[in-house]
TrEMBL record:
Superkingdom, natural source: Bacteria
Key word Lipid metabolism present: no
Similarity remark: Belongs to the UreF family.
Protein name per UniProt: Urease accessory protein UreF
Job description of the protein: Required for maturation of urease via the functional incorporation of the urease nickel metallocenter.
GO cellular component, as recorded: cytoplasm
Length: 228
């Protein structure tokens, strides 16, 4: 396979690698309960999630997985690293607050593993029965030779873009407003990504706020208009 820095854009495509699904992660429930109708409220919600939401934990695990893949590639600590992969993958999946969130993670992970296989990078290690999205994302970035910082930035960008895509189908803020929000998020994504990279996993603070609480009372996490 020809390596190119442009491969990273496959990971933030609105259609790939999740097979045309966009997950709202409880956004409908949250927006309805809080009666949010304007773009500023949406932007503040996403900023709060980036600063103290559970998405930070997923992003931090990306680097851990990446480092393990690198050690395995060089034949270092094979047994302990393989066990660590399985344990971290299971741990991050079990940290999700609802069955629906875990199903979202495993569906997206499967799609990305399948896509990566088509690109010539079949996952060579033992996997749990169900896998987390961060594991699949990190594996793809490692295979594409994306830097760790870009990997985390792209992860946050893709997540926020999916949230905004869902917002457009829930409240009438308009696509231009959504683009302006995404632009305003760029500096925050860059800042948060660097902070995440500099912290140990035990030092990552996150609160059960916003979308995390909405997920607990929201059984349908797919944005309905994205179903075809």
């Amino acid at each position: 396979m020809i390596k190119s820095h442009l491969l990273k854009y496959l990971l933030i495509s609105p259609n790939l690698p999740v097979g045309g699904f966009c997950y709202s992660e409880g956004l409908e429930s949250y927006l309805n309960n809080k009666n949010l109708k304007d773009s500023n409220s949406v932007k503040e919600l996403i900023i709060s999630e980036l600063k103290i939401g559970q998405i930070r934990l997923d992003a931090r695990l990306l680097s851990d997985f990446f480092d393990i893949f690198n050690e395995l590639n060089y034949g270092k600590n094979l047994k302990s690293n393989l066990q660590k992969l399985l344990s971290l993958d299971k741990w991050i999946l079990s940290s999700k607050d609802s069955v629906e969130m875990r199903e979202q993670q495993t569906q997206m992970a499967k799609s990305l593993f399948d896509l990566n296989k088509e690109f010539g990078f079949e996952y060579p290690y033992k996997k749990n029965k169900k896998n987390s999205w961060p594991l699949a994302w990190s594996w793809a970035c490692y295979c594409f030779e994306i830097t760790k910082l870009e990997m985390v930035e792209n992860f946050f960008y893709a997540w926020s873009a999916n949230q905004l895509s869902a917002v457009l189908r829930i409240i009438p803020i308009g696509s231009t407003k959504a683009q302006l929000i995404q632009r305003d998020l760029l500096a925050i994504i860059s800042k948060v990504s660097k902070e995440i990279m500099d912290k140990e996993i035990d030092d990552i603070y996150f609160g059960n706020i916003g979308l995390a609480m909405a997920q607990q009372n929201h059984n349908d996490l797919y944005t309905k208009l994205f179903r075809n």
